[in-house]
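User: Can you recover a sequence for this backbone? Please restate the input before giving your answer.

Assistant: Of course. Working from this structure:
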């Protein structure tokens, strides 16, 4: 049995994280929670303001290519 890699949303499997990322509301909520959990409050606020359009599409692309969500601010 092959090992599946862990992904960005709470260490869930990559396939589960990708499915959650494709759903807009789930992607927004989990993205905000993930950024708050990392201690990036400003990034979470930006995700809340921009999360329905630009960041959601970038999250899908980054999840497919890099297996991590898009990080606008990584400071």
């Amino acid at each position: 049995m092959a090992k599946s890699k862990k992904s960005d949303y709470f260490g869930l499997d990559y396939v589960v994280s990708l499915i959650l990322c494709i759903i807009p509301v789930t992607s927004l909520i989990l993205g905000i929670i993930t950024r708050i959990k990392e201690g990036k409050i400003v990034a979470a606020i930006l995700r809340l303001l921009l999360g329905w359009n630009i960041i959601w599409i970038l999250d899908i692309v980054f999840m497919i290519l890099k297996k991590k969500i898009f990080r606008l601010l990584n400071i």
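That completes the design. Residues 39 and 75 are 10 Å apart (CA to CA).
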